[in-house]
Task: inverse folding
C-alpha cells in the first residue's frame, strides 16, 4: 500500500517491531543513535519471561535464544539467616524464565533484520520530529507512522503532546555491577538485610549481575570496589560452596524510579517500551514489557496498513497502559518486600520479621504463591 513506518531506536522494542512489520510486507526502517557494536555489546537485562520467549519463538525470532539460553524456574530469598527457595516454575504450573543477555538478543535481532532485508541505520540520531517526519543529521525522512522506541530519554515522547507522566522516585538507589564470579550463579538471589538489600542475577558462564541498595542520590565515588565487595559479602552471606564475586567489570548507579506515561499516541506517532514507561529492575519486567508493546503495536499497524481500519490501533494506549501498570505494581510490591522502611532498630527488626513471613508464604503452595509465581515468570500470553 506504500505506507512507511519509521522506527526510532534499535532496542528490544524497536527491533522486534521492525521484524514483525517487515515480515508482514510493510515498508519499515530503523534509525538508531548508537553504533552497531555499541548496541550489540552493552549488557543490560537478562531475564526473559515465558510469554515473551513463546512470542519470539512463534515469530522465528528466538532461534539462538532457544539453543543457548537457559531455563530458570526458581529463586532464593535470604532473610534473617534463613534461605527460602521459591520454585516458581512449579508453583506457576510450568512457567519459567529464560536467561539470555539483552545484548545477545539484540545482536540476533539485528542479524535477522539483515537477513530479511529490513534496513537498520546505525549512528543515525533522530534530532527532532515534525509530525511524522524525522529530522536527522543526514536529512529528513518522511513516514506515515513513527514508532518512538527510543528509550527513557527519547526525543519522540517529547513530540507527543499531552503525554503526561506519573511516577515515583524511590527513596534509595541500586548500585549495579557486572561481576566475574568464582563459579556460575545457578539462580536469582534476593537478600533482605538490615544493612540494605542485595541481589544477584545469573548471566552467562561465571558472570552475574549484582545489585546493592544505596542511599538515594549516592555518589558512585563513595563506593569503591572493596566497599562494594564487603557490602555484598555481608548482605548476600555466601555459604562455603557459593559463588563469590572476584572481579567487578562495570559499575553503574541505577536511580530507582517508576514512571508511566499517559498519551502513547499522537496521530501517527506511537510510543513503546521504555519510552512509554520506566520500571525499576526489581521484577525484571522492562525488556519484557518492551517486547509486549512491540507485539501489540505491530498487530495494530499491520491491520491498519492492510485494511485502513484504525480500531485495533485505537486501543493500543489502553491495552499497553494496563500492561504497564500491571508490571509497575508487580515491581513495586517486590521492592516493598526487598527494602526495609526507615525507622529505629526495633521497627527494622519488626519489618524484617514481617518480610520473612511474606517470603515463606511465597514458597508455600497456595493461591498467594501461585499468583506471584505466574506474574514473575510471565504466564499470561503477550
Ligand atoms: P532501549 O533498550 O533503551 O532502546 C532504546 C534505543 O533507542 C536509541 N535512541 C535513539 N535512536 C535514534 N535517535 C534518538 N534520538 C535516540 N534516542 C535513543 C538508544 O540508543 C537505544 O538503542 O529501550 P526499549 O527497546 O524500550 O527496551 C527497554 C529495555 O532495554 C529495558 O527496559 C531493560 O533493559 C530494563 N532492564 C531489565 N529488563 C528486564 O526485563 N529484565 C531484566 O533483567 C532487566 N535488567 C534492565 C536490567 C535495565 C538495566 N539498566 C542499565 C537500565 C538491568 C539494568 C542494569
Result:
Amino acid at each position: 500500500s506504500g505506507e512507511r513506518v519509521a522506527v526510532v531506536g534499535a532496542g528490544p522494542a524497536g527491533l522486534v517491531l521492525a521484524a514483525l512489520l517487515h515480515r508482514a510486507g510493510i515498508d519499515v526502517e530503523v534509525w538508531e543513535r548508537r553504533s552497531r557494536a555499541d548496541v550489540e555489546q552493552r549488557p543490560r537485562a537478562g531475564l526473559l519471561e515465558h510469554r515473551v520467549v513463546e512470542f519470539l519463538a512463534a515469530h522465528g525470532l528466538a532461534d539462538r535464544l532457544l539453543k543457548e539460553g537457559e531455563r530458570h524456574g526458581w529463586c532464593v530469598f535470604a532473610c534473617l539467616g534463613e534461605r527460602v527457595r521459591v520454585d516458581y516454575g512449579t508453583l506457576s504450573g510450568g512457567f519459567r524464565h529464560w536467561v539470555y543477555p539483552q545484548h545477545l538478543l539484540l545482536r540476533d535481532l539485528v542479524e535477522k533484520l539483515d537477513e530479511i532485508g529490513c534496513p537498520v541505520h546505525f549512528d543515525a540520531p533522530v534530532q527532532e520530529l515534525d509530525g511524522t517526519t524525522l529530522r536527522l543529521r543526514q536529512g529528513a525522512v518522511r513516514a506515515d507512522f513513527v514508532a518512538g522506541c527510543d528509550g527513557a530519554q527519547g526525543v519522540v515522547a517529547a513530540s507527543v503532546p499531552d503525554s503526561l507522566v506519573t511516577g515515583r522516585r524511590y527513596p534509595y538507589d541500586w548500585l549495579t555491577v557486572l561481576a566475574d564470579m568464582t563459579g556460575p550463579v545457578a539462580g536469582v538471589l534476593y537478600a533482605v538485610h538490615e544493612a540494605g538489600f542485595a541481589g544477584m542475577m545469573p548471566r552467562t558462564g561465571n558472570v552475574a549481575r549484582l545489585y546493592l541498595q544505596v542511599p538515594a542520590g549516592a555518589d558512585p565515588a563513595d563506593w569503591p570496589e572493596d566497599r562494594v565487595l564487603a557490602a555484598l559479602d555481608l548482605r548476600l552471606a555466601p555459604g562455603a560452596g557459593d559463588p563469590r564475586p572476584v572481579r567487578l567489570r562495570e559499575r553503574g548507579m541505577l536511580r530507582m524510579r517508576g514512571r508511566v506515561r499517559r498519551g502513547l499516541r499522537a496521530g501517527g506517532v506511537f510510543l513503546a517500551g521504555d519510552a512509554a514507561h520506566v520500571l525499576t529492575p526489581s521484577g525484571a519486567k522492562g525488556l519484557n514489557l518492551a517486547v509486549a508493546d512491540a507485539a501489540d503495536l505491530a498487530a495494530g499497524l499491520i491491520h491498519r496498513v492492510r485494511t485502513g481500519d484504525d480500531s485495533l490501533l485505537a486501543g493500543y494506549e489502553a491495552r499497553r497502559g494496563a500492561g504497564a501498570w500491571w508490571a509497575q505494581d508487580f515491581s513495586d510490591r517486590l521492592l516493598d518486600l526487598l527494602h526495609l522502611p526507615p525507622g529505629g532498630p526495633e521497627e527494622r527488626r519488626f519489618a524484617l520479621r514481617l518480610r520473612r513471613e511474606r517470603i515463606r508464604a511465597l514458597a508455600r503452595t497456595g493461591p498467594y504463591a501461585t499468583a506471584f509465581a505466574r506474574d514473575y515468570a510471565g504466564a499470561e500470553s503477550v
